[in-house]
Specification:
heterodimer; A: alpha+beta; OB fold (Dihydrolipoamide Acetyltransferase, E2P); 3-stranded antiparallel sheet; 4 helices; B: alpha+beta; Gyrase A, domain 2; 6-stranded mixed sheet; 19 strands; about 35% strand
Chain lengths: ~130, ~375
């Protein structure tokens, strides 16, 4: 299981990574995809919306389960990873890379400091 | 929580384990889609030893079975099996089950769902007014399902009994992998062919048979399969799952199980009069299969609506179907909405998502 150090983690098993200014990518962790199993659908209908930290921004469906996706920090949803429309299994094969789920504009980049580090998250799921 | 005689094997294989019907059961090993495809294309092995087995014996055996089951067990001859159900006094389904005729008029085995063993045993006991001899052998009986188009061919080398020519819903008893008195039954819950084998948990039989199957099977791609893929496999076929699609409040007629509900048996079964009445009056709701037309995956308990937004029923099972690359489900709808090709809407997170009624098996 991998825990990259260039992203921040939540106890709800999402990761967030600042890519440019206040723009960030969000996905689910390697641990989460392993627990869910084969991902078959990522349903996100919140593009354009401004949501608070811990609000639900979408759902991820495995063959047998449905899980809500929680926003790590307050942000506006800019874009959904359109690759997931036809290849939701990217979330399984590359959870921190091509399996990203949404691009957002975070309200305050400093909010990321309140999230878990790789080490902290590894302890949580370890 | 109870273990099956194979629980240590599942854990050693790294299976994802979870409690099911009081047993520590394997949910998946390599991933649902991979396991599902293995059964559809080759062969897979399921540990379903959690299921229940009752023996009913003696001159009153058939009479008892006829009185508590909906199908006509008098049609059974030695070596034949029959899908059937117990119904309660209101016509609801106590359980769905298989009756095996070990010896005509003398000895039968009834195989029931793990979650219903105690309820079924009590139900059968309460109707045993002529004192047929009954034994609950669930705890000491192992059950492995070896399913898939190549299953019979692969395991034929472990036994002298003819598995390859075994007809659907028949069984034989013999020596399998050196273990005697194994029942090999051409039944299953996947729609991909294969057998289910029953044997006693004694003298290391469980390890002996499991190891023998994988010794010949592993080089040929045989894999262990968990309960998750068991569910997607059965759902693609439209087979009912007790507790989801059928329960104490649904009748066999509503569930599309009229074919195992014989209303003209020499011995009437519980609730036969009620079901006769329901048949004459016509059912008000029906278990249907549907596929999603718009994007979305149906799940247990989602509401079903008509185009006007009226509630017309509920989803009882749903999944993304691994072999079909589409989302499918089962659910009860009002009879007016049950015809093939009817347009229905599944309420997914408060959005009505279009679906249509289709026939079984899903395709």
């Amino acid at each position: 299981m991998s825990f990259p150090t260039d992203v921040k983690y939540t106890k709800d098993h999402e990761w967030i990574k600042l890519v440019d200014g206040n723009t960030a990518l969000i996905g689910i962790t390697d641990f989460a995809q392993g627990e869910l199993g084969d991902i078959v659908y990522v349903d996100i209908a919140t593009v354009g919306k401004s949501l608070n930290a811990e609000e639900i921004f979408g759902t991820v469906e495995a063959v047998k389960t449905v899980s809500d996706l929680f926003l790590p920090v307050s942000a506006t949803i800019l874009e959904v990873n359109s690759e997931l429309e036809n290849e939701p299994e990217l979330v399984n094969s590359d959870p921190y890379g091509n399996g990203w789920m949404v691009k957002v504009a975070v309200n305050n980049p400093a909010d990321l400091d309140t999230l878990l580090s790789a080490e902290g998250y590894q302890k949580l799921v370890g | 929580m109870k273990n099956t005689p194979f629980t240590h094997k599942h854990i050693a294989l790294g299976a994802k384990m979870a409690p099911f019907a009081g047993y520590n059961m394997p949910i998946s090993y390599t991933g649902i889609n991979d396991e599902h495809a293995t059964v559809r294309n080759n062969a897979g092995v399921f540990d379903v030893s959690h299921m229940g087995e009752f023996i009913v014996k003696g001159p009153q055996a058939l009479e008892l079975i006829q009185r508590v089951t909906t199908n006509d067990a008098s049609k059974l001859t030695n070596g034949k099996a029959q899908y059937s159900s117990f119904t309660n006094n209101e016509g609801g389904i106590v359980d769905d089950l298989i009756v095996y005729c070990l010896e005509e008029n003398k000895s039968y085995m009834i195989v029931v769902n793990a979650s219903n063993i105690e309820k079924d045993w009590a139900w059968m006991g309460s109707h045993n007014i002529h004192n047929a001899e009954t034994h609950n052998i669930s705890e000491k009986t192992c059950l492995l399902a070896i399913q898939g188009p190549n299953a019979c061919k692969i395991i034929q080398q472990l036994t002298d009994v003819d598995i390859l020519n075994l007809k659907y819903y028949t069984f034989v008893r013999g020596v399998f992998a050196g273990v005697s008195n194994v029942i090999v039954s051409a039944t299953g819950y996947t729609g991909s062919g294969g057998v289910e084998i029953y044997f006693e948990d004694a003298d290391g039989n469980a390890d002996k048979i499991w190891d023998a199957i994988f010794e010949v099977g592993t080089p040929l791609g045989v894999k262990p399969i968990g309960l998750a893929a068991r569910d997607t496999l059965r759902l693609e076929m439209g087979y009912c799952l007790y507790g989801n699609d059928i329960d104490d409040t649904t009748t066999p007629l509503e569930a599309g199980l009229g074919w195992i509900t014989k209303l003209n048996k020499p011995v009437a079964f519980t609730a036969q009069a009620i079901l006769e009445k329901q048949k004459a009056a016509g059912i008000q709701r029906k278990l249907i299969g549907f596929e999603m037309v718009a994007r979305g995956i149906p799940r247990h308990d989602y509401l079903i609506k008509d185009a006007a937004g009226n509630n017309i029923g509920k989803v009882t099972s749903g999944t993304q179907a691994p072999s079909l690359n589409k989302a499918i489900g089962l659910g009860y709808v009002t009879i007016e909405n049950a015809a093939l090709d009817s347009e229905i809407f599944i309420d997914i997170r408060n959005n009505p998502v279009k679906a249509k009624v289709v026939k079984f098996p899903f395709s």
